[in-house]
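Record filed here:
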Amino acid sequence: MLSKILKTAVIGVGYLGRFHAQKYADLQEAELIAVADSNREQAEKVAAECGTQAVADYHEILGMVDAVSVVVPTHLHYEVARDCLAHGVHVMLEKPMTTTVAEADELIELARKNRLKLQVGHLERFNAAILALGDVLHTPRFIESHRLAAFNPRGTDVNVVLDLMIHDIDIIQTLVREPIDKIDTNGVSVLTDQIDIANARLHFANGCVANVTASRVSMKPQRKMRIFQNDAYISIDFQDKILSVHRKGEREIFPGIPEITSKESLFDSTDAIRDEIQTFLDAINRDVTPPVTGEDGRLALQTAIRISELLTDSPS
C-alpha cells in the first residue's frame, strides 16, 4: 500500500528547525505546506530555500496540515504542542519535551485522547552505532558517558542537563529499563547563570550504575559511552559512529585469565534528522507507535529535572 502524502509544517525555523524543514521538503511522503516563526524574516528565508510559504503565527496553519515539527524554544514547547494536538495535528516535539512533568503528562494524554502520534526528538536514538547494538547488549552493569561540547549560546535557555545530558539519560534508561533508586550529582556554572558542567551518578534498582558527565564549556567535543556487562565491554563513539566490542575469548593469556577478543565497526555517516522524521511519518501512515514516544520523553525529562533539582539544592 502506498504511503499517504502528509501535509506538514515546521514551527520554529532557527538553527535546528531549518534542517527539519529541509527534510520535509525532500521526503516523498511529505508536502511542506509552510514554515512558521515569530521572526518573519527568518521564516521567509527558510521558506524560500524549501519552496514553501512563511507565516509568523503558527495558528494560521493548524487547519491546513496533518503533522508538524515543533522546534521552538523549550519554554514554548508545551503551549505550541498542545495547540497542535488539540487541532488534530500529529507532533514531532524537540527535546526536552516540556519544562515540567505535568506538562508532559498533559501532552501525552491529549495525544492519546485524539489518537495522534507524539514523537520526541531524542536524536541519538537514530545514531548508527546505537542502532547496531542489537544482540550485543544484554544486562548492563556499569555505564559511563561523556558528552562534551564547546560553548554555544544556542540552548542556554536551559541548563546543561536539559540541553545535553538528557540525550544520554534517554539512551541509558532505554538500555537499562529499570527504575532509578538514587542519584548523586555535582555541577558548576562557568559562563552562564545556569549549570554548565554536570556529573550525575544514577543507581538503578537492579544494581546497574551509570556515571554521566555533560559539559558545554569544553575545548574539544566528545560524545562517548562505555558499557560494561558480565561478558563484554562495549564502547560507543556517537561522534565518529564507531562501535567497539571487547569480549572474553576461549583461550587463556595467563592461567585462569582469558584472552580478550575485539571487534570494531565503523558506520557510514547517516542523516539522523531525516531518519527521525521518516520514522515519524511512517508511524502516522502505518498507525504504529513512534520509536521515541511521549512516555520516553517524559521519563528522560523526569530524570533530568531530578538531577537539576539536586544540583540546585547542592551547596555552592
Remarks:
- The mean pLDDT is 93.
- The CA atoms of residues 179 and 295 lie 14 Å apart.
